[in-house]
Design goal:
The complex is a heterodimer of chains A (99) and B (248).
Chain A (H helix, E strand, L loop, with lengths): L3 H20 L3 H26 L3 H31 L13
Chain B lengths: L1 H19 L3 H21 L3 H26 L14 H21 L17 H9 L4 H22 L10 H15 L36 H6 L5 H15 L1
The chains are: A mainly alpha (99), B mainly alpha (248).
Chain lengths: 99, 248
């Protein structure tokens, strides 16, 4: 089994996630795109783990998943708090620090 | 490899859908497609433990959390089309494409060599092998992870907690308020009328008819009216007429 197709797929998914973070306005969708980027990097880690014949890559992917879970919990709580006070989930509306 | 060539187009299409989906719920479901396909790819790549973790943690826990928050945030979750910074969208697409180009150029300049495969590493099974590494070399990182998870849970609780600013409204208060409304404005005291029950249609989207033949707005849910799915009484009358004329 070759390595290249998996890595290319991982790169494509990462790029799509990157464009999503830059273009989308809804904070929750931006967050989903961040998750997509994390998943793409996980795919690369697992593929490299197989290419090199040791399990370090899978361990790294496992830690990425744990940290992603913690990040999602706190991030969504922040989005909810912002929504509660400002009645909006758009990243453009939270610009109070600008002034 | 067959699984890869089937799943890769599906994943790319679903990820692109994430960019273009107007509703956040659709984006979440497309993300679920990507994550489940990734789980299958992990199984293909000799990582059965990550296959299970991907489904349980990502699809089961994280995406459900996303959907719960979408339910709380509600209808406002749709994206705005208006650009607040001029040329922002075009610029970010250009930057994204440049980033992709950089990745492609970088990837084309390296060779990976033959894949060693996990045959020897997974000799005693994938999960015992992972456990051995996790609880020897990475045991400190593993312990720190537990601190991180507890901190995240505490943080979410603190952020989501809300102090009660006004006293709790009891049944007695509600009844008193209703009586007050009645004496002041003459608002109807009793419960709202039920939706209409007719021969052809008796769902909640059918308004009840008042004695003078007009539809009662109080008999249907405000949400249904806003969504525009309410069937008006004249329409039903037309339906009935068409049906009876058909019989003749």
């Amino acid at each position: 089994m070759e390595t290249e197709p998996f890595i290319v797929l991982s790169a494509i998914l990462f790029t799509i996630g990157c464009v999503g973070v830059l273009t989308r306005r809804n904070a929750i969708v931006v967050f989903m795109c961040v998750e997509l980027m994390l998943n793409a990097s996980n795919l690369a880690l697992v593929t490299f783990s197989r290419t090199n014949g040791n399990l370090e890559g899978q361990i790294a992917a496992f830690f990425v998943m744990v940290v992603a879970a913690a990040e999602v919990v706190v991030g969504l709580a922040i989005i909810m708090t912002i929504f509660r006070t400002r009645r909006s989930a758009s990243v453009d509306d939270a610009s109070l620090l600008k002034y | 490899m067959i699984a890869f060539w089937i799943l890769a187009p599906v994943m790319v299409a679903a990820a692109l859908g994430l960019l273009f989906a107007r509703k956040a719920v659709h984006a979440a479901l497309l993300l679920a497609v990507v994550m489940l396909s990734l789980a299958v790819l992990y199984a293909v790549l000799d990582a059965p433990f990550l296959f299970a973790v991907q489904i349980i943690v990502y699809t089961g826990a994280i995406l459900m959390l996303f959907l719960f928050v979408l339910m709380l945030v509600g209808v406002d979750a749709s994206d705005s089309i208006v650009e607040t910074i001029r040329g922002h969208r075009a610029a970010s697409i250009v930057v994204g494409l440049l980033f992709g180009l950089t990745l492609v150029v970088g990837l084309s300049q390296i060779t990976f060599g033959a894949s060693v495969g996990l045959g020897t590493a997974n000799r005693d099974g994938n999960i015992p092998a992972i456990a051995e590494i996790l609880f020897t070399r990475y045991v400190f990182a593993f312990e720190v992870t537990s601190a991180l998870l507890i901190t995240a849970a505490m943080g979410a609780m603190v952020l989501a907690h809300r102090e009660r600013l006004s006293p709790k409204v009891t049944q007695a208060d509600l009844a008193a308020q209703r009586m007050k409304d009645y004496t002041e404005t003459g608002k109807h005291l009793g419960p709202l009328p039920p939706p209409g029950v007719f021969a052809r249609h008796n769902a909640v989207d059918t308004p009840a008819l008042l004695p003078d033949g007009t539809a009662s707005e109080a008999s249907i849910s405000r949400v249904l009216a806003a969504r525009g799915t309410v069937k008006s009484a004249p329409e039903i009358a037309d339906d009935v007429r068409a049906l009876t004329e058909g019989e003749d």
